[in-house]
Amino acid sequence: MIKSKEWDWKKVNGKQEEYWKEPSIESFYLINRWKKDNKKDFLDLGCGLGRHTILFAKNGFNTRAFDLSENALKRAKEYAKKEQVDVEFKLGDMLNLPYDNESIDCILCRNVISHTDTEGMRQIVKELYRVLRHDGEVYLTLGSKETWGFKQTDWPLVDPNTRVRMDEGPEKGIPHFYADYDLIEELFKNFNIETIYQLEDFYKNENEELSSSKHYHVLIKKGK
Fold this sequence. Notes:
The protein is of the alpha/beta class. The protein has a domain at 93-221: 3-Layer(aba) Sandwich (Rossmann fold), CATH 3.40.50.150. It has 6 helices and 10 strands, in the order ααβαβαββαββββαββ. It has helices at residues 15-19, 25-36, 51-58, 70-83, 118-131, 181-187; strands at 41-45, 62-67, 88-91, 104-109, 132-144, 157-159, 162-164, 175-179, 192-204, 210-221. Strands 1, 2, 3, 4, 5, 6, 7, 8, 9 and 10 form a 10-stranded mixed sheet that branches.
């Protein structure tokens, strides 16, 4: 199993910092869904600067925030204090979550869970299952094998599903696990898979050159 490595959040400032404080579109859907299901205990797994941590705390969830980066947690704590919300912050590795069995109702893990290799991914899935209550749900994203990153032959291949990102930026040196539909079904065979869809995000760089990336968005439930 490859060693876990956190984002270099010290490189994220200015406009980038503001971007990483904006909640994702699907987080608003999840708040509505999980409120309807009377879910209360929420975990922001890989919280970064706290964009979803703060949002869920403001919407009445008992919020826990977890990350591997001390720098990210420090800044997320400052953000929570500024916004006057109560959050339980913990530092650690997704391979070994510091939460009791069946103690969490709902988990959001966006663009984080895939920062490992295949062996690590299987361990993280076990941890998700362990900490979730019956009928608890996880919304997560996974890099697609159709996306550009998996096709970078100059990035070291760790195993058939994992490359180490080597371009400059906060993710340099971090492993990235990539999936396809069959692999997702195999990984989450002990869960009920509620939805799977693949999105392609388009964006332009500083030279106005168009690029895109593809991710699977997966909603799973512990119900078997």
